[in-house]
Please model this.
Amino acid sequence: MGLMAGKRGVVMGVANNHSIAWGITQTLAAEGAEIGLTYQNDQFGRRVRPLADKVEAAFLEQCDVEDLASVDRLFETAGRTWGSIDFFVHAVAFSDKNELKGLYADTTRENFTRTMVISCFSFTESAKRAAALMTNGGSMLTLTYGGSVKVMPNYNVMGVAKAALESSVRYLAADFGSGGVRVNAISAGPVRTLAGAGVTDARLMFNYQRKHSPLERTVTIDEIGRSSAYLLSDYSSGVTGEIHYVDSGYNIVSMPKLDELRA
Ligand code: NAD
Model:
């Protein structure tokens, strides 16, 4: 019996087979979970449908978090399909790539607001709806990045949104704890995905972190998937409000290795 046997829930944020949400979906499916998937719009839908078939998804719903009616429809579908749910994964982020370069100070009000709504507030709005379906308790997860707590070149407004997202994790964990609903985040190291490529010079950051993390490599979406299975299963039943780093240990390092500096 898999770790997630008998558990049912929603994963939001698969765009293609490189998505972190896809790594999570595959692991949860392999561990016996029943999963409902979403796609942002028709363009993504074409790529997500064959992936949904692969994991025998219980449903595949269009959901754009800028359109609250589509978020409502998603959780109505989950409720109609299962009655209650056990887990929810939010792996959604967006910012104008023209502002994921240069100075943070140049962020426009329009992009700041849109980035915050899609990358941060959408978790709160979805979590509220997911929690209402977690009548037997449950576990939620969102995805963040270390640019929330330390300055990463070009990450800019996305770092500010991730800081707010991490704070939301703690507030939601406090809100829902009495109902046995846990809320956590994985802070993943850099992964080559569509969203990851939106940050200017992402390749340089990727290579730098690979070189300077204790494990001397980056992480795979399968590794993030396996950590998510821990946080979404009963193995982490005493854990809530946590930001769990899955980044080859990069976040503990304060300077390059001495060999590097001597060279
Ligand atoms: P990805 O491009 O595969 O996934 C991002 C998803 O966000 C896509 O499925 C996209 O459709 C969805 N999305 C964007 N705007 C949306 C909207 N308005 N409504 C609904 N969905 C919307 O990239 P990814 O790297 O797998 O990103 C998943 C999460 O992981 C994001 O929160 C990202 O910030 C986070 N993350 C990524 C990295 C990395 O290096 N790639 C590192 C740490 C955290």
